[in-house]
């Protein structure tokens, strides 16, 4: 490899080599074409040797060509930032002022110089001085103004705590609750997909059982015009909620007579085994359109004021979402290729043509705002039930690692994402060929140039009504595997890890929200230790807690990490009963994830050995239910052990982890998986399977009662 190109890549945070997370830890060398591609996308041309040299100089000089950086992310106890001036101006700093974004307070910042460095660039001498702030600053954000020789320079101070928010109930307890895919919730009253009223009702069920946390799938808005694209991890904006979760009958504008012509249809959707998004979502939208007209023509001044206040609070981001959806709805009928294929004047929300379009379509734009207004109202009601019931954590939301490239989030601010590429993952134990998610990935330089505002907004939106936040693929705070759209392999792009961690810590503190990070996969050395120092909880699953990787013996619960959120599996893994019978292996063969019958048969043999290992671990723990001890070795085809779910839930719940999440799929003995990563819905009904019984029947269901009793026997 060209050594100068390698040097440029190292400076830009483009990895020139990496290892996968497969069993052999295969080494990959990033191609020069891929390095040049990403260098250009990050703002540094590398086509020729001359370009590379120019870019190296440009990189070295970049900090010396700005008086202040766009943002300084600093920790309490180490409040330092630097200022660059001409050497002749080094004594010309008149004042340093800050204005708190939390309370509007404006004050002078006393400081002193603790170090300096000089450099000559193009025959001019510059000095960079490090200022140490002589004042305690509360956690939060401050608009910084530095006056030098009567000229003002602006930046932002982001002051972080040493650690993320600490909830005493979590830190000192052994809490438990449920992992819930809300869309999968079956009830006697919903319209064939779980909704916010189901969530509110489930809060009461959780409380009555003694639970304190409800883990939720991402609730963010998905594609309005293509409701069958149902993955909760492929949002069009992580700032807003999915309207499919609106309970139509709880909307204030609803009238009972609205149901007269739809009852049979709704009953059909409710009774179906698979969620029919393409029918349910448009039906809900038609009702909401009718309600919007009633809202506009009605005399409910209090509700109209609430709507106006909501629109003002959500501001420009809500407006951009609503305009995007209005444009998309019209253009998807005639233009193929998403927003990048629209007329040029509509590809940038700042273009005057977009404002003119929004003004001309004010009614439809208002409707999309109304959808969010009602979704937020109903989610707020569910959160109010959490407070009423006194859950110690409440909702534990899930923040997806990215958004679809054809999304409102990218349209609203395309420059902050790496163009022409998408996030994915190199090969690992679960996905030997790697994964090409196609999700928008932040450009680390553009993100800092915007003072991390896009990240801050996303964190804040998903910490709303939330006692804990799960950051999906938390390694993305340090690095993200990004793949050019026209290639199968990419490389890792590095982020300013210290800044990213501290932004998370600030938002955690301001929103009183515990943070956990999903770190299954390719984890860099030292990464988990950095999370622990920042008080970010780890996640643990039974299937990963093994003595020698994925093929070893199952660890006894006493070895699990204390500072973690623990469960048996995840939404991407086979539920327990499916795993036991190996149905997931058959599914993977049918979807061609397993390439041939020989590999499939080897997987069956490995699964048989794993079943023995799990039985051995359960036997050693002594946690089989006393009235349902295992009666045999349960060879393939024989039976599902009668007390299996109880034994496994008790086994994992007995660990020292601060929080245990019971999966409803395991409690209710579901034998089909919710999601089979890497395949489309034509090969597997991803995100469409409902839970087998109605929410109203949980308290009287034998398996539900027995499993909760078993969990409480070790969790209190």
Q: Compute the average pLDDT.
A: 94
**What is the strand content?**
15-25%
- How much is the radius of gyration in Å? 27 Å
**Biggest β-sheet strands, sense, barrel:** 8 strands, parallel, barrel
Short description:
By secondary structure, the chain is of the alpha/beta class. Helices cover 36% and strands 19% of the residues. 43% of the residues are buried.
What does this structure look like?
36% of the residues lie in helices and 19% in strands. The chain contains 21 helices and 25 strands. Strand 19 and strand 20 (491-494) form a beta hairpin. The chain is globular, with a radius of gyration of 27 Å. With 716 residues, the protein is α/β, with parallel strands linked by helices. The strands form 6 sheets. Strands 11-12-15-18-21-22-24-25 form an 8-stranded parallel barrel, surrounded by 4 helices. Strands 3-10-9-5-6 form a 5-stranded mixed sheet, covered by helices on one side. It has a 4-stranded antiparallel sheet with strand order 17-16-19-20. Helix 1 (3-12) packs across helix 2 (32-41), helix 8 crosses helix 10 and helix 19 packs parallel to helix 21.
Q: How do the strands and helices of this protein lay out in sequence?
A:
Elements: H1 3-12, E1 17-19, E2 27-29, H2 32-41, H3 49-61, E3 72-75, E4 80-86, E5 93-100, E6 106-108, E7 111-121, E8 124-133, E9 140-148, E10 151-160, H4 168-171, E11 175-180, H5 196-209, E12 213-216, E13 220-221, E14 237-241, H6 263-271, H7 277-297, H8 301-331, H9 352-360, H10 362-389, E15 394-399, H11 408-412, E16 421-425, E17 435-439, H12 444-449, H13 453-462, E18 468-471, E19 479-484, E20 491-494, H14 497-510, E21 514-517, H15 527-533, E22 537-541, E23 547-550, E24 564-567, H16 576-581, H17 583-590, H18 597-621, H19 644-653, E25 659-663, H20 664-667, H21 702-715
